What we know:
This protein folds into two domains: 37-200 and 279-412, no CATH class; 201-277, Zincin-like (2-Layer Sandwich). The radius of gyration is 23 Å and the shape is globular. The protein has helices at 2-23, 45-77, 80-87, 95-127, 135-166, 171-193, 195-198, 208-219, 256-261, 264-279, 282-305, 308-314, 325-338, 340-362, 365-379, 387-393, 399-412, and strands spanning 201-203, 227-230, 241-244, 251-255. Helix 4 packs antiparallel against helix 5, helix 8 runs parallel beside helix 10 and helix 11 packs across helix 13 (325-338). The chain has 17 helices and four strands. Residues 30-35 have low confidence and may be disordered. It is mainly α and 413 residues long.
Amino acid sequence: xxxxxxxxxxxxxxxxxxxxxxxxxxxxxxxxxxxxxxxxxxxxxxxxxxxxxxxxxxxxxxxxxxxxxxxxxxxxxxxxxxxxxxxxxxxxxxxxxxxxxxxxxxxxxxxxxxxxxxxxxxxxxxxxxxxxxxxxxxxxxxxxxxxxxxxxxxxxxxxxxxxxxxxxxxxxxxxxxxxxxxxxxxxxxxxxxxxxxxxxxxxxxxxxxxxxxxxxxxxxxxxxxxxxxxxxxxxxxxxxxxxxxxxxxxxxxxxxxxxxxxxxxxxxxxxxxxxxxxxxxxxxxxxxxxxxxxxxxxxxxxxxxxxxxxxxxxxxxxxxxxxxxxxxxxxxxxxxxxxxxxxxxxxxxxxxxxxxxxxxxxxxxxxxxxxxxxxxxxxxxxxxxxxxxxxxxxxxxxxxxxxxxxxxxxxxx
Length: 413
């Protein structure tokens, strides 16, 4: 497997880099220009204090939860504890049952490990007015998240372990290819199967606003057949909108909190931003990048998990063993965290292009600035976060950068 797998990894990585260079607008002004960004994004002192107070509590809790999650996964992956845990589970006579149980137990352990941090984080969100959930609703959401995480992980790990057990030459090639296809299928099916688990969706009521949004899409040359209102207010006061799905499942979703809090002009700008994603086929391109990333990631996972020193440390015979489930899950957890800065750098560039699209479509930089300021206050977003935190975890440009972008765009008109 060695040379062939490394050759395949090199090929896929080159294709992935080439695609990223082709579809990601790297040349756009996604970062701050020297002296051109107001770190306050024009927010008043009271708003900045409220944001700082919340984030001084929430950010350390979130980072610590992330660290505990990764360390827990590594502890079970790179010690014999994980393998012994799997051996203690029933289902030895039929490996898929034992594998599914192992994944569920790992998900539960992971959630319990961070529970002392996620509960205070929810308390902080409540005190800040961001969360509208009762504790039973919060617990139900956690259970739903665990269900989705368990099902997705079982599918991927079962494919990997099953093909390894099949043992034919090139099984790893088939496994990595199937991982990429699962990403494509997930992007198509997510709006139909996963999103309804957490929220209710209904068509936006016939109104001047809906007509205005459809006219905006028509003027942009895009056919948007479905504008949906989602009941985000049952969980949060934060505002948002997004495009999801591929082909016949593509739809524009608007938070009810946005419709309730924002002006019609602000809603139009948010929708214009999402139309920018649709115009550039960002969901399709993101799915292609994600699929290639999955192919590359699974190949790396097989190479690392199959290495003698790693197997011996984990106490497993190989990837074909159900006892390797904690090893596979732990390595995947670390891998996703490692590549996060690259993913977010691409995301920020794409989001900036959508911002520019919204400005050009609406020709309304004044409302754009007001909207970014409103969103920063409503979502308690740091207008100018620490650069290391921004580089690693920010999927969107900061509010300060977005306000500066609108101001530069207006000056260049």
